[in-house]
Amino acid sequence: MSSESQIPIAAKVASRRFARSLAAFYATLFGMTGVHLPFFTVWLKAVGIDATWIGIITAVPPVTRFTVLPLVTAAAERRQMLRGAIIATGFATALGFSVIGTQHQPFVLLAIYALTCCVWTPMVPLTDAYALRGVRQFGLSYGPLRLWGSAAFAVCALLSGFLLRYVAEVDLIWIITAVTALGALVGLTLRPLGRPAAAATPAAGAPKLLRNPTFLAIIVSSALIQGSHGAYYIFASIAWQQAGFSGLTIACLWVLGVIAEIVLFAASPRFTLPSAVLVMIAAASAAARWAITAQDPPLAVLAVVQLGHGLSFGLTQVGIMGLMVHHVPVHVMARAQGYLTACGGIVASTTAIVSGMVYARFGLGVYDMMAAMAATGGLVMWLARKRLTD
């Protein structure tokens, strides 16, 4: 009896260790993005790279998401080395950014950055696949694990902005590299998971994923709803600056969205609605958010609308991950995450190009296009609701 009573205790200890190490890794993974996103282009300009080359260099990550990324996730899955792939790509990314920091020639920078992105961009889908396997193995909830990434993104972005007062712009790359190296070291603490059993029939395998209407509905709906944030990510700060908002006000508006996202992730274990219904609610929320934003609302209304980021982004993420857990065989989860990210990358790249042309002509009218995208994503989920709620 004593040995049997120790089994639940051992399981709880293993569950807590898995959750702690994964939360810490999510924090470093998205913390690095919080430094890279606002300041990598600042560093490029500081070392003498002109605007044309900056545009070319920063276009590399979206391209690798739908070209190299699915190959990396598929290879990690075939070799059943998901955790090993996360660790390897983490150290390779840190090495890549350390080399980037020594280069100032545009073509050389482009080449090294492209190679670095080939190992960097697969890290999020690899980590999400690892997380969902652990969620299924230990009976955990995805949201409370993922919220640490969102929190770290906001904290690292704010801290980097503060450090910019004391660190020369030409040295910003070393902050990015340091956070990346820290993430690689934290990756070593990730707990090994049991190997998933192979599919009993070929129909459940990876080659059938892209011919499965249910899976296609999941990734297309996700790409459309999350892709509807494209104009917001690109033009929100520009539009707010033109509206006369101060830099502090703009920063607070961004932080409001991240706080709402964190709160939603924390509350997600209490959600009882089916995941497909959560995604439809998220799509409706996103459509409403962009429709209101297109009307150039006053600051008080805009602040409330920004809190909708928890629903438009956070609830979409929670719902999609729930659908992936229930409708994707665990032994092809990494490949499925690769397809999900690749589909999102294609839509995001296309949206960035089109929204630039629309914003140049119609200004805030670009948000009407974003509202239509989100509504279409919700429609895709609604049409597939019977399959997804079965």
Structural class: mainly alpha
Mean pLDDT: 88
- Residue ranges: pLDDT <50 for 5 or more in a row? 1-5, 199-204
Distance between the termini: 40 Å
Series of H and E elements: HHHHHHHHHHHHHHHHHH
Number of separate strands? 0
- Helix-residue proportion: over 70%
Number of helices: 18
Specify the overall morphology: globular
Summarize the biggest pleated sheet. none
Radius of gyration: 21 Å
Strand percentage, roughly?
under 5%
Can you walk me through this structure?
The chain is an all-alpha fold and 390 residues long. Helix content is 78%, strand content 0%. α4 packs antiparallel against α16 and α13 packs antiparallel against α15. It holds the Pfam family MFS_1_like. It is a multi-pass membrane protein. It is found in: Cell inner membrane. Its main location: membrane. InterPro entries: HcaT-like, MFS_assoc_dom, MFS_trans_sf.
How do the helices and strands line up, and which of them pair or pack?
Layout: H1 2-46, H2 51-58, H3 60-65, H4 69-78, H5 82-100, H6 106-120, H7 123-138, H8 142-163, H9 172-187, H10 213-227, H11 230-242, H12 247-267, H13 275-293, H14 299-307, H15 309-327, H16 333-362, H17 366-383, H18 385-388
Helix pairs in contact: 1-7, 1-8, 1-9, 2-6, 4-16, 5-6, 5-7, 5-9, 7-16, 8-12, 10-15, 10-16, 10-17, 11-16, 12-14, 12-15, 13-15, 13-17
